[in-house]
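Lab notebook: predicted structure, single chain.

Context: the supervisor wants predicted structures on file for every construct in the current expression panel, including those that have not yet been purified. This is the next one on the list. No modifications to the sequence; it matches the entry in the shared construct table.
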Amino acid sequence: MTNCCNIIITGVGGQGTVLAGRIISLAAEAAGYDVKVSEVHGMSQRGGSVITQVRFGDSVAAPIIAFGKADIVLAFEKLEALRILPYLTKDGKIIVNNRALLPMPVITGVMKYPDDIEQQILSVYDDAEIFDALALAEEAGNAKSLNIVLLGRLSKLLDWPQNYWTDAIAKAVKPRFIELNLKAFALGRE
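Prediction complete. Output recorded below exactly as produced.
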């Protein structure tokens, strides 16, 4: 890692991007890094785009990630992944949930959801990890743990002890959901 690592988490309102950003920031703090977080909610309460940016390193001056400067993109929905590609560095890593959540213009018939999103992503980043995170969340016991499944996959890219992640999850979620989320994390990590 260079002096600063830049992670963009993107999804649709209600998918847990903000919680994922909080968990990453807690784990990064446990690893001894300076951390800055920024959130852009858009029309999140109406199913719109939500972007959380997490920057950590020895010293981080600002929370915003410029175009072409994200080291990692964590995408909870594949169209949102496609939209955020210009932020990713040439050598960046992208982890994508392969499910589609149709935006309102598609639902109303004004626009068409692209058929070839995964191919478009792979044409730019041939090592993109595109997988069914929702199925793993459901296996863990709740579809809403999709964000934690994706964090499990992300954790493999960062060289931190696993307990930094599990402790961060335990701090960030309600006590009654800790066990479920730890299971989701483990499934994503596998």
